[in-house]
Design goal:
Elements: E1 2-3, E2 10-11, H1 21-28, H2 30-46
Antiparallel strand pairs: 1-2
Helix pairs in contact: 1-2
Amino acid sequence: MKKCIYCKNGISENSVIDFCELCGKKAFGEKLFHAIVQNMKEANDRGDLEQGRII
């Protein structure tokens, strides 16, 4: 299980961001947080987040 980079609480292994929803909203505000999540999900669907991984 992944951990939030801010509070260290567990987050889903499938999460496209490295912080929990609560910390994300505190750090960026609700509107920007949702935009970040949406953009990261779209990048993940395109495969853009896998470019630097070595299998």
